[in-house]
């Protein structure tokens, strides 16, 4: 029987992975809950049983175990290589190896074919990238895209537990130490030499890798005082005219997407699995330009659910 482990089992994303594993009733022989460091005397509940949270020891892992990673990038770089050497398969939610050659970056509705027959490490894309490419992929198959502009309005849970605490306690969030309560931050992370933050560069690089895309993405990422749910304002310019009604019909029948005429609010999508698309419209001066909004639960489809969907493809 299959053994699955969750590394970072007590964090926001790790807890959500375990919750979704229970919801989807996968045939698991055993679930293991791991912490990469710290105390090892905690437990989590899984299918009515108490599962101990163990400190991860790569040498003790059984060959063939599948690990779901829900740690920071710096921590992932420490535990993933030794675990791979023990013959495990890893689906990692961090950004540590997303752009590494030979590591597939997968959104099941978009590029499940990128998974090799015997994968070792599979990367989960960034939350904002996942919902963007889920909507872009069917549109690009319909008519080739010339360029994409996207502004993201990302919830504080995207910064983990510390983001939620900063909002509820009205505290400043590092590294910029800016207040989140009743405020909006025009950057997520520190700008690089080119002026773009790492969060914005992920949208550029990851979209190109997942979709094997030649079109450019022009991103802007902001943090908003919302607990769960990322929203994106998207402008797509095609090489040829695309009527918004045609695009809406296509998206409404595409895997993982639900269309609402006026779009979805974060408070209504929390706890749901689809990528919600709405307010489709053509620019009045150019029928090749399509604009719309995307909203998704960043802890589910933007992280935990996407990883579990990859797991389902493997088993």
Give your account of this protein's structure.
With 315 residues, this protein is of the alpha/beta class. It has two domains: 3-125 and 303-314, Rossmann fold; 128-298, Dihydrodipicolinate Reductase, domain 2. 30% of the residues lie in helices and 28% in strands. It is built from nine helices and 15 strands. Strands 3-4-2-1-5-6-7 form a seven-stranded mixed sheet, with helices on both faces. A six-stranded mixed sheet has the order 11-8-12-15-14-13. A two-stranded antiparallel sheet has the order 9-10. A hairpin with a 2-residue loop joins strand 14 (275-283) and strand 15 (286-296). The termini are close together. The model has no long low-confidence stretch (mean pLDDT 94).
Summarize the structure.
This protein is α/β, with parallel strands linked by helices and 315 residues long. 30% of the residues lie in helices and 28% in strands.
Layout of strands and helices, then pairs:
Layout lengths: L2 E5 L4 H12 L6 E6 L7 E4 L2 E7 L10 E4 L3 H12 L4 E4 L15 H4 L9 E3 L3 H16 L2 E10 L6 H8 L3 E2 L4 E2 L18 H14 L5 E7 L6 E9 L5 H9 L4 E4 L5 H4 L5 E9 L2 E11 L3 H15 L1
Parallel strand pairs: 1-2, 1-5, 2-4, 5-6, 6-7, 8-11, 13-14
Antiparallel strand pairs: 3-4, 8-12, 9-10, 12-15, 14-15
Tell me the major beta sheet.
Answer: 7 strands, mixed
Percent of sequence in beta strands: 25-35%
The second-level CATH architecture of the largest domain is 2-Layer Sandwich
CATH superfamily of the largest domain: Dihydrodipicolinate Reductase, domain 2
The arrangement of helices and strands along the chain is EHEEEEHEHEHEHEEHEEHEHEEH
The total tally of domains equals 2
Query: Given this structure, which CATH class of the largest domain is correct?
Result: Alpha Beta
Number of strands: 15
Shape: globular
Largest sheet: spatial strand order: 3-4-2-1-5-6-7
């Amino acid at each position: 029987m299959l053994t699955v482990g969750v590394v970072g089992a007590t964090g926001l994303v790790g807890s959500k992975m375990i919750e979704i594993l229970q919801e989807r009733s996968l045939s698991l022989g055993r679930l293991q809950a791991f912490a990469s460091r710290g105390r090892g005397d905690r437990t989590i509940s899984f299918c009515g049983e108490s599962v101990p949270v163990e400190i991860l020891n790569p040498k003790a892992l059984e060959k063939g175990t599948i690990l779901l990673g829900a740690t920071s990038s710096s921590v992932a770089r420490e535990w993933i290589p030794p675990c791979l050497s023990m013959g495990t398969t890893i689906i990692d939610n961090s950004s540590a190896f997303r752009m590494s050659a030979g590591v597939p970056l997968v959104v099941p509705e978009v590029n499940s074919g990128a998974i090799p027959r015997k994968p070792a490490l599979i990367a989960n894309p960034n939350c904002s990238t996942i919902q963007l490419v889920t909507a872009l992929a069917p549109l690009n198959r319909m008519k080739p895209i010339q360029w994409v502009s996207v502004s993201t309005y990302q919830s504080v849970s995207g910064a983990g537990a510390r983001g939620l605490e900063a909002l509820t306690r009205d505290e400043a969030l590092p590294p910029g130490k800016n207040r989140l309560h009743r405020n909006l931050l025009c950057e997520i992370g520190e700008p690089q030499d080119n002026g773009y933050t790492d969060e914005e560069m992920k949208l550029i690089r990851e979209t190109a890798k997942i979709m094997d895309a030649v079109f450019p993405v022009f991103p802007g990422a902001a943090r908003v005082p919302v607990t769960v749910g990322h929203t994106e304002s998207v402008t797509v310019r095609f090489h040829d005219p695309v009527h918004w009604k045609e695009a809406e019909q296509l998206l409404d029948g595409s895997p993982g997407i639900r269309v609402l005429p006026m779009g979805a609010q974060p408070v209504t999508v929390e706890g749901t699995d689809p990528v919600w698309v709405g307010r489709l419209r053509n620019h009045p001066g150019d029928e090749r330009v399509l604009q719309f909004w995307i909203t998704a639960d960043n802890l589910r489809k933007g992280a935990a659910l996407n990883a579990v969907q990859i797991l389902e493809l493997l088993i």
